[in-house]
Amino acid sequence: MRTYRRKTKVVGKQTFINQETGELVEMNVIQAEERDFNFEKLWMGHVVGTLDIIGNKKIKLVTYVMQNRNRDNIFFGTYRDLEKKLNISSPTIAETFKVLQDNDFLVMVQQGVYRINPDIIFKGTNGNRLNVLIMYQKEKSEKNGQAEEEEQIIDPIIYIDSELEEAQQEIEQAQKRIEKLQKRKQEISAHQEVLASQESKQTKQKAS
Fold first, then answer.
1. Are residues 68 and 130 in the same domain?
2. Could you please report the per-residue DSSP string of 121-186?
3. Is 6's pLDDT higher than 60?
4. How much is the average pLDDT of 63-83?
5. In which domain, by residue range, is 73 found?
6. What does the pLDDT look like over 17-58, one tens digit per residue?
7. Is 185 within a domain?
8. What's the rounded Cα separation, in Å, for the pair 96 and 137?
9. Domain boundary pick from 102, 122, 143
């Protein structure tokens, strides 16, 4: 968790009116400024060089992303571009970006455009970092909202599929019942024919 410290300094004097007594009072004007505190410095050149030596393709990709972000922490690059420049397969690129997004390292602004979390890495003043952080949080919130909408679209489809499956089972059960009734009907018809034949023979025998 990033914390802040407040730095204050006297920038001059100004006269104020005491609301209770009406007297003029000269007071110091203090300027307050919040700055990052409890953070560690990161020398990108050394870190990137070390990561590049390790040689893992996913690390190579992350290194490239960090090196090629702009002043607003935006990285531009499609899977196809990265595949050609870094000689990394599209599945590996897709898997890496998914991990980075799931772990709050970056957010996809749109296809081929990503913003890196300024709480993880940023070059610039604290004020600029806070502005980029606001944009990052907004874009992340919008992305989460889109994911929820997609889930809401999928849910009814799953429900309909379930209903169709249940209806199909009912149809199969009804079909089995129909076949059973038809077989029973045939058995009864055959039995009735046998009885009719026997009665006919008995009638003929009595007549003779």
1. yes
2. ---S-HHHHHHHHHHHHHHHHHHHHHHHHHHHHHHHHHHHHHHHHHHHHHHHHHHHHHHHHHHHHH
3. no
4. 93
5. 44-143
6. 656 666 766 665 555 555 555 454 555 554 555 455 445 788
7. no
8. 21
9. 143
